[in-house]
Design goal:
globular, alpha+beta, 7 helices, binds zinc ion, single chain, twelve-stranded mixed beta sheet
């Protein structure tokens, strides 16, 4: 039995074969007084090769990646895997079960809490277990995100650039192999609480992605993610060439600049004039904000401050001051990232 603070598990992460199980997290609340939180895990381990950790449900209301991991667990067999895949389809299980972004037990945002600790609630404890026992085993991580309930994203890889140029270059190659139409790029989060930073700290290759959103499983976004996952696993040396057509060259876009956000300053009903993935020039009309209380009044018009790709759009159009309506991401040349 492996024990890590409130986390315990008898799961065998290391032997060859294919199996599913749980890590159990103790959390003494009214509801869980005589229960544990069962966080599902799976392993598909074949012969010699790298270890890849695949995680989804980091945010509970992001579904495409969860579906991809379930399908991987069904389809892949150890004889097709060189090395080992460790799969966690519902990383923040309480959030997944509640259909929410963060955990209802402790308000824990899994992607802001790494490397976690064992004394601050279930979300931090899961992160701490992953950081201590799974990142230490992994050569690479694929962490799946989507727009969640609140937003819709262009299907994209997501790359955080850290201080290690060699690791950045290897992660760029991984993004090329994943081959989504776009790859969002941002500097590594200064707060250090994201999973990317934890992986960088341990020198582990890391690629995230954003696949669709608005709280569903989109077949198109699933397909981008599924094909990308197989290509990335092949690139890492885990599986044979999956027999897919070569992906189009991914276009790198900026997710780190605040310049591209169109943000409401008033209450109102927002009507977007642009579509996800659309290329816009500076000055392109993005949205009109109708005054919800003064019928017939327009509260604001939004235009693009810079040229770029419409990369994120808001789901619910009834907005408050501070709500983002959409994001325009400027394109970046690959050579500028190295
Ligand atoms: Zn997410």
């Amino acid at each position: 039995m492996l024990t890590h603070g409130p986390v315990s598990t008898a799961f065998d992460f290391d032997s060859r074969g294919k199996r599913a199980g749980f890590i159990d997290v103790a959390h003494s609340s009214n509801e869980l007084a005589f229960s544990v939180i069962r966080v599902p895990v799976g392993v598909i381990a074949g012969g010699e090769g790298p270890t890849v950790l695949l995680t989804a449900g980091n945010h509970g209301d992001e579904y495409e990646g969860q579906a991809i991991l379930h399908r991987l667990m069904q389809e892949l067999t150890p004889d097709r895997v060189a090395g080992r895949l460790i799969l966690m389809p519902a990383l923040n299980t309480p959030a997944v079960m509640a259909r929410t972004r963060v955990s209802p037990l402790d308000d824990g945002n899994m992607n802001r809490i790494f490397p976690g600790d064992t004394a601050s609630g279930p979300t931090a404890a899961i992160a701490s277990f992953v950081d201590t026992h799974l990142l230490s085993r992994a050569d690479a991580v694929l962490d799946f995100h989507s727009g969640g309930t609140a937003t819709d994203y262009v299907d994209c890889g997501f790359l955080c650039l850290g201080p290690d140029a060699g690791l950045n270059a290897a992660n760029l190659d991984l993004a090329d192999a994943f081959g989504a139409p776009f790859t969002m790029v941002c500097p590594i989060d200064g707060s250090g609480g994201d999973f990317d930073t934890a992986a960088h700290r341990r020198g582990v290759r890391f690629l995230s992605c954003e696949l669709g959103g608005i709280g569903r499983v989109s077949p198109d976004s699933f397909e981008v993610g599924w094909n990308g996952t197989l290509r990335a696993l092949h690139h890492l040396g885990c599986i044979a060439q999956p027999g897919l057509p070569a992906p189009a060259t991914t276009r790198f876009i900026d997710a780190g600049s605040a310049a591209g956000f169109a943000t409401a300053a008033h209450h109102g009903l927002a009507m977007l004039h642009v579509r996800l993935g659309q290329e816009v020039a500076a000055g392109t009309p993005l949205a009109t904000l109708f005054d919800a209380h003064n019928f017939g009044e327009i509260r604001a018009e939004f235009t693009a401050r810079e040229a770029g790709i419409v990369s994120i759009v808001r789901r619910n159009p009834m907005v408050r001051p501070g709500d983002h309506l959409c994001v325009i991401s400027a394109e970046i040349s690959r050579s500028a990232l190295l």
